[in-house]
Amino acid sequence: MSAFFRLESPYRGEYVLHRLTFGSGDPVVSIVAGVHGNEVNGVCALNLVAGVLRLQRARGTIHILPCVNVFGAEEARKRWPFDDRDLNDAFPGDPDGSPVDRIADAVLRATDGPLCIDIQTGSATVHEAPHVRVPLSGAAQELGRAAGLPVMWRRPTARFDEGLVGAWRAAGRAALVLRGGRGGSLDLDDARTLARALVRVLVEGGFLQTPEPAVPTMVTTEVREYRSSLGGFFVPEVRPGDRVVTRQLLGQLRAPLGGEPLEDLHALAPGIVLAVRVYPMVYARELVVRVAESVG
Questions:
Q1: What are phi and psi of 166, to 5 degrees?
Q2: Is the Cβ–Cβ distance between 121 and 183 less than 8 Å?
Q3: CA angle 77, 198, 24 (to 5 degrees)
Q4: CATH code, 221-293
Q5: How far apart are the C-alpha atoms of 50 and 255, rounded to whole Å?
Q6: Rounded to whole angstroms, how far apart are CA atoms 240 and 218?
Q7: pLDDT digits (tens, 9 = 90+) for 147-188
């Protein structure tokens, strides 16, 4: 492990951006987690992948940045704790700017090579099933399939033009997102699933030889969001990764005091549950369930 970048801190030890490198030469891939400090599933997944890489000889170069926002992680905070800025909004960064801008610039320099992968987690209130997000076109498509996760969500390219992924794409690099779990807690099963998916991507990219069994992947652009029509206490009836059929009960909105039923939410089409609200208090129009639906 090397210290790629250092930054003095006002009241604690210095900030260090650590990078682990396995192998040498071409091809090159960079994998990042922990841009948001409370997204620890990605941190755990990359630590698991690093354990695999210590036992196998990599072909080419694999860079791993296991936790970018270390200070945020120490305090279970999504944002940079000193000025409450979102690190992901700072890319491409500025080497002469604020601390957050300088960190963003360092991350972009530390993740060279034609392929980059960002490991993300859902918010603290929504638990997401492990899945892949890719643009509608480009080199990331086949690698996204190779991850072998239940769903590959093909999204409009504009959704990939911001943050770290957008900065990678602006620099001419192929980028994809692996995402799962929820912010603020370690979901070990999800972290292990993400780690196995990363190993599959590395095998597909020619970096490793050992195959990792995969599951059938639904490739879709159709992801339906179910939202509460009014405020209340949401009780889910499904879990991330569940397969649902049309008219299946997804969850029920109840009165926060007394528990009277207010609204039932049923699936409008079959699919795979991609995300479920886990913090029960909701306002009107808040996301409670997201379902990936097959196309055609």
A1: -65, -40
A2: yes
A3: 105
A4: 2.40.50.100
A5: 47
A6: 15
A7: 999 999 999 888 888 999 999 999 999 999 999 999 999 999
